[in-house]
Amino acid sequence: MCPMNSFSETIIDWFNQHKRDLPWRNTKNPYLIWLSEIILQQTRVEQGTSYYLKFSKTYPTVKHLAKADNEEVMKLWQGLGYYSRARNLHITAQVITQLHKGKFPVKYADILALKGIGEYTAAAIASFAFDKPHAVVDGNVFRVLARVYGIETPIDSSQGKKEFNALANQLLDKKNPALHNQAIMEFGAMHCKPVSPNCNLCPLNSICFASQKELVSELPVKSKTIKVRNRYFNYIVLNHKGTTAINKRTAKDIWTNLYDFPLIETNKEFREEEILLSKEWKKFIGRNKYSVKSISKVYKHILSHQRIYARFLEIDCITSLEKIIPSSAIIIKQKDIHQYAVPRLIEIYLET
Ligand code: SF4
């Protein structure tokens, strides 16, 4: 096994030579660090950077974010996905403002108690902002540790989480937790990549279990495969004298509080004409007069646990939309739709 101090020294040395200059790396401000960590969860750095810059400019302090209108926060978040993160960000900013007088808590346990902040994010904030000795364990860290130390315990098991967490904390340079944590995360993201890492030019090569045993592509191990559910959305894009109807999604489902069009969800993919013959469509349109302007191609949209197949039916209505739309929908001018926070799928449809 690699001696603990030499592991930390090696990755810090690598980090000092190869680190990317990212805007949130030059701050000790816990609010900005939190913002960057929430934005970057499951988002690529290239995509996340523009959102970080937008958010930190629009809401330079936690109090600014707390005071913001929720619809405005969601609109700024649009396109990033995982909208519950934006909602929690806003709620937590309000809690920090009210309960902690706008000051980010310093203790790990107090940070962890905040909504939307898990162990990884709490460790990142505590170490980056306050130099507290808590090791971060994200996907990059799991991968590096599994490979260097040859750990085969599945990373998505509770035993695995315990084991990796204990090792990460054992390895942590307690005098330089911020530097150590950033170094191991960056090393995983940039060098020990999931596929085809450059082991020949790796500073850990001589002590890396996976490289020596030719097990790089086998580690880390995951036990569960995610079940993906198929869903079939038939969106009704109504048109009456330049107005349309949009629907605020309030149910416990994907995209809560975002807007989309009135929707008929079916349990299989309907052909173009099938949807207009279905009982769901007849119930929706009732006796109102309409003509079909167009029926779109099928848009395939992939989320972490769902695969959405969406079709958009553009319908010209003779009667005004109040008579047709469900009570959850509102009527807006078509040209104003860009003022509303919509899921990426709707954004893609509107762009084409
Ligand atoms: S030798 Fe290869 S697998 Fe091992 S840490 Fe380096 S890049 Fe990762």
What this model shows, in words?
With 352 residues, this protein is an alpha+beta fold. It has 15 helices and eight strands. Strands 1, 4, 5, 6 and 7 form a five-stranded mixed sheet that branches. Strand 6 (299-302) and strand 7 form a beta hairpin. Helix 2 (30-40) crosses helix 3. It is elongated. Bound molecules: iron/sulfur cluster. Residues 144, 147-148, 191-192, 197, 199, 202, 204-205, 208, 210-211, 216 line the site of iron/sulfur cluster.
Compact summary:
The chain is of the alpha+beta class and 352 residues long. It has 15 helices and eight strands.
Summary keywords:
352 residues; single chain; Nucleoside Triphosphate Pyrophosphohydrolase; binds iron/sulfur cluster; three-stranded antiparallel sheet; 2 domains; Endonuclease III, domain 1; alpha+beta; five-stranded mixed sheet; elongated
How many separate domains make up the residues? 2
Structural class by SSE content = alpha+beta
Query: Please, how many helices?
Result: 15
Whole-number mean pLDDT = 93
The CATH class of the largest domain, by name, is Mainly Alpha
Proportion of beta-strand residues: 5-15%
Unreliable spans: none
Largest sheet: 5 strands, mixed
Q: What's the architecture of the largest domain in CATH terms?
A: Orthogonal Bundle
Share of helical residues: 40-55%
The topology string of helices and strands comes to HHHHHHHHHHHHEEEEHHEEEEH
What binds here, in terms of ligands, is: iron/sulfur cluster
End-to-end distance, in Å? 55 Å
CATH level 4 superfamily of the largest domain? Hypothetical protein, domain 2
Apparent shape: elongated
- Which oligomeric state applies? single chain
What's the Cα radius of gyration? 25 Å
